Amino acid sequence: MTMISKGLFLQGIxxxxxGVEAVKNISLEIKSGEFFTLLGPSGCGKTxxxxxxxxxxxxxxxxxxxxxxxxTRLPAIKRQINTVFQNYALFPHLSIFENIAFGLRAxxxxxxxxxxxxxxxxxxxxxxxxxxxxxxxxxxxxKQRVALARALVNEPKVLLLxxxxxxxxxxxxxxxxxxxxxxxxxxxQTFILVTHDQDEALVVSDRIAVMKDGQIVQFGTPxxxxxxxKNKFVAQFLGAANLLSGRFHDGIFHTDxxxxxxxxxxxxxxxxxxxxxxxxxxxxxxxxxNGIRAKVNEIIYRGTNLDLxxxxxxxxxxxxxxxxxxxxxxxxxxxxxxDLVVLNE
Amino acid sequence: MNRLIIWYGELLTQKxxxxxxxxxxxxxxxxxxxxxxxxxxxLVLVSFAGRGAYGEMVWEYSFDNYKRLMGYGxxxxxxxxxxxxxxxxxxxxxxxxxxxxxxxxxxxxxxRKPERTRYVWLMMVIIPFWTNMVIxxxxxxxxxxxxxxFAKLAAYFKIISPGMALYPSAFAVYLGMxxxxxxFVALPLFSSIERLDWTLVEAAQDLYSSNLRIFMHxxxxxxxxxxxxxxxxSFVPAMGMFVVPDLLGGAKYMLVGxxxxxxxxxxxxxxxxxAISMGLMILTMFSLYLxxxxxxxxxxx
Lengths: 345, 301
Known about the structure:
Helix content of chain A: 10-25%
Largest interface: A-B, 27 and 20 residues
CATH class of the largest domain in chain B: Mainly Alpha
Strand order of the largest sheet of chain B: 1-2
Strand content of chain B: 5-15%
Shape of chain A: elongated
Helix content of chain B: 55-70%
Order of helices and strands of chain A: EEEHEEEHHHEHEHEEHHEEEEEEEEEE
Shape of chain B: globular
Oligomer: heterodimer
Radius of gyration of chain B: 25 Å
CATH superfamily of the largest domain in chain B: MetI-like
Number of helices of chain A: 8
Radius of gyration of chain A: 24 Å
Distance between the termini of chain A: 39 Å
Structural class of chain A: alpha+beta
Largest sheet of chain A: 6 strands, mixed
Number of strands of chain A: 20
Number of domains of chain B: 2
Number of strands of chain B: 6
């Protein structure tokens, strides 16, 4: 019995450049209609993987299936997949209208339908005023919307986004992330985003694959990946994390800063656990379990919160209280057992 | 007048800046005035003069030379000179067109070479420049000689009769002209192709484009700056070329360059030669004007 699937399957995808493996035997299933993100530092192979899905790069081995159809050897012009490029790659000599109509014209769709579909795309992305302008007359955010419209107007089965927000300033980026997610939910189309920005990944995605050195390190919903990082790399790449290493015996984890009780028991004897700065509570009295006496030696004011650096152990704590601290203050840190994440590596 | 100005980081007075500008510009302007503007004006003057019985200049001003160029002679109207003018435009167009068509694959080939060997390939395009034009043209005599395979092949296919060389002929003229002007097109085009943004090509591929569409929208607009320079650098001198058509075309393929040379040489009719030169200049400027107008839309880039 064959499985009928509407999603995108990658099976054992491998790609090497000059003998260096950029993508190592990656297998993935991306469900139809989900917002999927490939997250990782630069050089982790995420863009290479995206380009292979687009048909702009040929894998050394592996299979790509789209809606159960083998597209492994299909050229880019025959794949019903469109891409939003990192620098948008708009055609500078064509008007915004013609840029958006580009893919439709190439497929010789009737003029009337082209007009209707481009107009629809212009409205959807709030580019109503723009059709006669040229790319060089547009702001970064507008260009990005045109690039999105140019891809979406073709009604691709999968939309690929290659770091589409890296050229936008921080405030606009935060706004565009929310809009992008709303758009994807409205259209119900499959989006695959490549980014190195963890905030972006957490905001927009249904599922995230965290990549490192050409491999997928962890895979899951944003909550799962953030709350239960598998290893040191994921813990530190997504958000901030305090890593505590030590020995585990007789049900207690022994570290340099003291003995801690754990909720999930590790399978190792020697290893590392993680706790996020915002999970640590600060109190004046000694907590019941896992209390650590510490001294504040750095205070960073961030408006919505304070970031504290405490000794011993160089632990970072995020304080949301309006309580004032001074350098040298002695406090109790409450590292609740359920907040301590046992790492595998 | 002694306002202070910061000129790219240097503190100056306005007066000093103007003085410096004049110092830099002066010699060049003077050079152009003496060797371009004045001779140009003299040429205009001479083109209205006449020729004496022994080839001397006669300072009687008339439009006779221009009428003659238009074909009105003592024996009535003949299109001979106009045909030569139009043929020159045609040869320059074909030469430039062929050079462009050949330059694109050549430049892509060189641009895709690794940086180490790229400049070796580029040198091979440039090196012929170091050889004298006449010698380069004469070397075609050898290549096209009746004893060599090219002529023999042409004779085998009955294009020429056996024992003949491939020159003088229109074919030889085009061959010589293209080999002369190819580098003028290829070098500026290469500088554009080297900086080509390939993501536009990928975007066109991603958007279902045929190869022609990819070229028209992702490659041509990006290479237009270099291509324009190349076209002008090739078309303008090709219009006035006389060495190549003279040697490889013989009397059968006279171009305006040869005609002018003839007037200043054997015919000893400087006034008519000046008038033809003016005609060539006007024709060239008109062609460039047409070209620029056609490209205005593209120059948005």
